Amino acid sequence: MDYYPWLLTVHILSWTAWMAGMFYLPRLFVYHAEVGPRTPQGDLFKVMERRLLKAIMNPAMIAVWITGLWLGIASGYIKYAGWLHVKLVLVLLMSGLHGFLAASTRRFAADANTRSPKFYRIVNEIPTVLLVGIVILAVVKPF
Predict the structure, then answer these.
(1) Average pLDDT, the chain
(2) Are the CB atoms for 17 and 60 separated by under 8 Å?
(3) pLDDT of 1
């Protein structure tokens, strides 16, 4: 398993990039919802949101899943580690949030957003809660 440290490195780097996007995209939505549709600022936010999602978040999420599953299988943890099973559930929830954010990006691009800036401020906190749980499970391995 000489590749294991490199695989773990790619996993952590991908996770970092994904989380940066998961924190930033909802914040962009807050600002975008504040300026409204069909404005020069709104058009700029559309470009920023699309690029963040397509160029950073989507590839990073895919890399997290591939390297994470590979690490789980290579280490053998996937067969018996309860902490890893719970972590996978939290990562599934994060992936579901990612899908919601992707759909929101499409709504903003079509000038069809109906949600308030306050809604996106609340959504912006969800990745933090999931991240705390995921990191605790990965580092402490409580069960």
Answers:
(1) 97
(2) yes
(3) 67
| CA nearest to 116, candidates 25, 21, 36, 22 | 36
Q: List Cβ<8 Å contacts ≥24 apart for 6-9.
A: 7/67, 7/70, 7/71, 7/74, 8/67, 8/71
- CA gyration radius for the chain? 17
Distances (CA, A) of 112 to 24, 32, 43, 44, 100: 20, 12, 13, 16, 15
Quick: pLDDT tens for 87-103: 999 999 999 999 999 99
User: What stretches of the chain show up as alpha helix (H) in DSSP?
Assistant: 4-35, 40-51, 58-75, 77-80, 82-109, 117-123, 126-140
pTM of the model: 0.95
Q: Residue with structure tokens 């996106």?
A: 120
* Nearest to 93, CA basis, from 32, 41, 62, 134: 134
Distance CA(79)–CA(75), nearest Å, equals: 9
- Considering the chain, what percentage of its residues have pLDDT values greater than 70? 99
Q: Distance (Å, rounded) from C-alpha 40 to C-alpha 62?
A: 32
pLDDT digits (tens, 9 = 90+) for 27-59: 999 999 999 999 999 999 999 999 999 999 999
